[in-house]
Amino acid sequence: MNRHDRDTHDRDTNDRHIPFARLHNVRDLGGLRTADGGLVRSGLLYRADSLGKLRADDGADEAERADWARFCALGPRAVVDLRYDWEIAAKGRVPELPGLAYHQLSIEHRPYDQAALGPDVEPGPYLAERYVEVAHDGVKEIRAVLDVIAASAAAKEPLVFHCASGKDRTGLIAALVLALVGVPEDAIVEDFALTGLASDRLLADWRTTHPEATGIWPGYGKAPSEVMTLFLAALTERYGSVRGYADELLGTDEEFAAALRRALVEVAVEAEAERG
């Protein structure tokens, strides 16, 4: 990567990451390049950690009020919450907002406690296996998530999808959407690994809510690129490609993928004009 490319990459990364006081892992999927030179549209699809940390009530402090204002400024018309019912009951959900549709679709069916894992558990293979489980267990919910995203994108209505840390379940959905619209694997992996920018704050949050804990898995909150690389490789080995997985298990087809791409991607000529 030359200096110009590196500077452009750093600027694009910073532009996509959206800083909040209480949220740590919010970014716009817009700006990523497709294999044929298209550009994922900005301002339509956001990934995040738990929106249950947002507050819009009278008791919110200054930082929380600023967070809520920044969230509202994104213009979201839909939120997809990928968490379990019990997570939402314990940690809350996005505050109500006029015109904001809320969809709770728990794609994971086998809960596990990452913080409690032993130090000998390697994040790459372990988490990739969990993602593969989710990809098979949560077929119904994953397809429903894709349908909501496709409908919102077609209507040009911004959507935010999230889980707890914005890393695992959120990362899986982001990978599927990006693959379906033609973003190459290396860019998908790179986007996943950007959660590393939030790892320290995610860990600090956990320690704050578990002051009595004496130890935590060294991989907690981290997003090594190996995780996504292994997950995508597993789908490719079994189904020929991520698209093959989606078509065979989720019931997508060329019409669905093409419509999603039209909604989310600026074609190369259009993208160049925008840059010009």
TrEMBL record:
TM annotation in the entry: none
**InterPro entries given for it?**
Prot-tyrosine_phosphatase-like, Tyr/Ser_Pase_IphP-type, Tyr_Pase_AS, Tyr_Pase_dom
> Any idea where the Tyrosine specific protein phosphatases domain is?
136-201
Against Gene3D superfamilies, the record matches this protein to:
Protein tyrosine phosphatase superfamily (3.90.190.10)
Q: Name one GO molecular function term.
A: phosphoprotein phosphatase activity
SUPFAM superfamilies linked to this entry: (Phosphotyrosine protein) phosphatases II
Q: What is this protein called?
A: Protein tyrosine/serine phosphatase
The species this protein was found in: Streptomyces formicae
